[in-house]
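Project standup — Tuesday

K.O.: blocked on the structure for the chain from last sprint. Re-posting the sequence here as requested.
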Amino acid sequence: MKRPKTFIFSILITILLSGFSFSQAQETPTDYLKPEFHKNRREALRAKLPENSVAVFFANPVRNRANDVDFVYHQDPDLFYLTGYKEPHAVLLVFKDEQTNPDGTRYNEIFFVQERNARAEMWTGRRLGDKGVQEKLGILNSFNNSAFKAYDIDFGKFDKILFYDFKNDVRDTGSPSDLFDLISQFKTKVGYGTDNTSLSTELPKNNLNIRELNSIMASLRGIKTPEELELLRKAVFISTVGQVEVMKAMKPGLSETEIQGIHEFVFKKYGSEYEGYPSIVGAGHNGCILHYIDNHKPHIESTEMVLMDLGAEYHGYTADVTRTIPVDGKFSPEEKAIYDLVYKAQEEAIQMIKPGVTFQQLGAHAKKVINEGLAELGIINTKDERHLYFPHGLSHHIGLDVHDKGSRGALEENMVITIEPGIYIPANSKCNPKWWNIAVRIEDDILVTKDGFENLSYYAPRTTEAIEKMMRQKSPLDKFDLPALKKGQE
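H.V.: unblocked you, prediction finished:
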């Protein structure tokens, strides 16, 4: 009997993919978080859930970049924290109490995941599927996402169903079990509403709860475990090496894009999968734009400084490190005055860090130091004058997000926070023009210890003297020359 071509093709794909077995795990890094970590995090979540409740977590959506090209997929940090799963189109349910199936089996969590598909995997890479999740992630009560619609869960019996409200921005891919359909099926199961209105605008009158889950997850994620600290240390060190290599390679005529490229090459050299956030490389007046990410200035002048705010993401955990350096390797008197003031504010705030000190106390002290210094320099008239030269906060948590979840009250042991004062004086400010277009931010990643702190980003010089000394060192990129673009190639 003659087999149809589609049948033969599917058999060939299956044979091909049989070589892509999970036995190839040795091809991946060995320092990922282990399944035991994620299991412990689910147990920690369960301990914090309200009585008779269930918490529901959806995977991040796939985002389209243009036409048939999507952005590189990045998992929802909460779902990754609880499972280690990196694929889309999934939903996790964590129950406070054990549940019982009609057949008598008991469980306290269910995970519905993207199922395997030989044709799709040939194009976009291997999938775990339900069996792979059970084997590799250790989540035994896992099913393919196509099973979610028919899975019988009596959501009405729970006092609280905790989840994050939906933004109604998930594309329908046409698959009956993609994220769009998982959300729709969940809404039907819990009685979210037939008109798809957001619970943010209508307070729920039943057991649906969109407010508590974030604070519960913040209480967990804000305190880092030893396994998380190990990855954060690596992410921060990688980021500081990038800063050091740019200090050595810096010279007039470089572009902002080149500087970004050096940083990100270092990230990749160490195996960092992503940047933790869009890289900020602002030369001269561009440094006065807090989140400047164009990075397209083609030629940086010798009289300018460059503000570089970049962080490597390593196995899910991101650093956040900023240094500001003079292009010609020497701070001018005005640049040094502003830089030293920012450094003074940062150093004094860092020295205050210990459990019990609050974010507000740290920020208030840094603001006080900067205001007094600006008044002394004559940039503002009095230390109490309102201004926008230091327009942002001093600190935030880092972890799975660059602005990670965590308490904004008193510091606790094993929190990791930034300390990042800055002064930005754009052109036409109401001060002597000699200060115009000076922008300085110094940002370090600080671990709160039992009775103090540890600066994880110590490797990148912070003082003006140490930066100038580092910038006198030779760079391995000094002889890295590429052919010039010719007319018609631009």
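K.O.: great, moving the ticket to review. Residues 226-249 form the longest helix (24 residues). The domain at 223-471 is CATH 3.90.230.10 (Creatine Amidinohydrolase).
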